[in-house]
Write a structure and sequence with these properties.
Elements: H1 12-37, H2 53-74, H3 91-106, H4 116-119, E1 123-124, E2 130-131, H5 133-161
Antiparallel strand pairs: 1-2
Helix pairs in contact: 1-3, 1-5, 2-3, 2-5
Length: 163
């Protein structure tokens, strides 16, 4: 996380959330790489995002892209023009490059938005829950944290079984 390359924001709370999102996505990717290195097997799930480590990372990148697209839409900002995430067939090879790209695309869209617009009004998310923009930023930060927490648990569990 290189804060000197992130421009000044009208609302420093948004800048902080953008930087935290960046930090936790990078940390998640390191943990995901560790999971790949031990051939971690995810628990069975009917959720297609949990079919493999590759589909899980695809989901995480898709969500990160989607959060910013949603926020820009709700704030009537120009599209952030973030390319879709690599699909699971190539994500292992393209993960670092896409994450670098995603981080850069996340850094500027919200920079000039005044603080008041982050707090009201709330908007319906794609899954039906209402969020103000500030709450969606917090949700976006927590998303990679939650998945990294799950992966860390599964890595620890798998390693303890192999002893």
């Amino acid at each position: 996380m290189n804060m000197k390359y992130v421009k000044k924001y009208s609302y420093n709370g948004a800048r902080s959330m953008v930087l935290l999102h960046e930090k936790y996505l990078m940390s998640l990717l390191q943990t995901w790489r560790e999971a790949k290195s031990i051939n971690l097997v995810l628990p069975e799930s009917e959720d297609s995002d949990y079919k493999s480590l590759d589909t899980l990372l695809e989901h995480i990148f898709r969500a990160a892209r989607g959060y910013m697209v949603w926020m820009c839409d709700k704030l009537s900002l120009p599209s952030p023009e973030i390319n879709p995430e690599p699909n699971s067939a190539v994500i292992d090879l393209e993960a670092e490059e896409y994450l670098d790209y995603l981080i850069k695309k996340w850094r500027t869209p919200l920079a000039e938005v005044e603080e008041e617009k982050f707090h009201t009004p709330p908007f319906a998310s794609r899954w039906g829950v209402h969020y103000c923009i500030d709450a969606m930023l917090e949700h976006a930060v927590m998303h990679p944290i939650r998945h990294e927490f799950q992966l860390r648990y599964l890595i620890t569990e798998q390693k303890s079984k192999s002893k």
